[in-house]
Amino acid sequence: MPTEALLLVTAAALIHAAWNALAKRGGDQVAFLWAAQAMAGVWLAPFALWRFGVEGLSAAGVPYVVATIVLHALYFYTLGSAYRHGEFSLVYPVARGLGVAVVPVLAYAVWGERLSPLGVLGVALVVAGILALHVTGIGAANLLGRLRASGAGTGWALATGLLIAVYSVNDKVGVAHVHPVVYITLMGFGVTLLLGPVVIRRRRALAHEFATNWRALLVASALTLTGYLLVLFAFRLSKTGYVVAAREMSIVLSVLIARVGLGEQTSWRRLAGAGLVFAGVACVALAR
Question: Which whole-number Å values give the CA distances from 123 to 24, 144, 192, in the listed order?
């Protein structure tokens, strides 16, 4: 993986884990995420207008912009629902990790993108780490029972993971036609409009978020689109499967944040699973 892409993805992972932890601590996660997304679009708008004046908007990129708006609107809704029903240290790894397994398959099916043997090993280790976070005993026989026992949080997290896989493949092509700053700003405003009706029904919760969590909202708004913007630039430099897998080093951070910052109990299995994810990311970083 090119060094420039790895540095971008590493920064994106740190940012992503941070704003997701802030979202988990919100009173109404969907309202919190919507507000952060809307504010982030405002911060990025001047830069997007400047890039739009320089490059314009390619007609070939419009379908990908529309698709990413719809996919990300669904993503923020399912992510907020997952955090409302499940523990951060359980929900976050599922949501982020599922895409690691699905993206290489989609990337190969769509444009024949192949991973090297070391890259395949890295992806496999990341997936194994996700499984280790959920297996309660030796072997995988109890995995389905564990997922059912974790309740609605896991169901929403699985839906979120599938959406991550699809929008990653879509955005890899989209930023080849549209500058990443313009692309992500259009996405931010589009998601704000699409989720507006949902949030209007939660207007009391939204008002409460602004009244009690405005500092966290300011920080999250500066991080949410910025983190993914770095990923979009990385898509221009490296294979989709590598970028998505390397980004999941944020899973390691999420386990630490859950234990230290949110006071959640973190078992040795979750720590071991996070270690496997980290090892997988290391393999991806060395892969070509």
Answer: 27, 22, 33
Find the Cα–Cα–Cα–Cα dihedral 121, 127, 129, 130, rounded to 10°. 170
pTM metric for this prediction: 0.78
- CA dihedral (245, 11, 185, 113) in degrees, to 10, reads -30
Q: Whole-angstrom Cα distance, residue 50 to residue 56? A: 10
Q: What are phi and psi of 115, to 5 degrees?
A: -95, 150
Nearest to 210 by CA among 32, 84, 22: 32
Residue 268: Cβ-neighbour burial (10 angstroms; 0-12, 13-18, 19+): exposed
pLDDT in tens, 154-188: 788 888 889 988 999 999 999 999 999 999 999 98
Which amino acid, one-letter code, is at 157? Answer: A
pLDDT tens per residue, range 66-88:
999 999 989 888 887 887 777 76
Count helices and strands (H / E) in the chain. 13, 0
| Closest of 182, 188, 181 to residue 38, by C-alpha | 188
Between CA 121 and CA 128 the distance in angstroms is: 10
Task: Classify residue 43 by burial, with Cβ atoms within 10 Å: 0-12, 13-18, 19+.
Answer: middle
d(CA 61, CA 280): 33
Question: DSSP character for 137?
Answer: S
Amino acid at 101: A
| CA angle (238 as vertex; 63, 165 as ends), nearest 5 | 50
Token pair belonging to 52: 């739009």
Q: What does the block give as tokens for 288?
A: 């070509």
CA pair distance 250, 9, nearest whole angstrom: 10
Q: 102 is written with which tokens?
A: 């699905």
The span from the CA of 217 to the CA of 204, in Å, is: 16
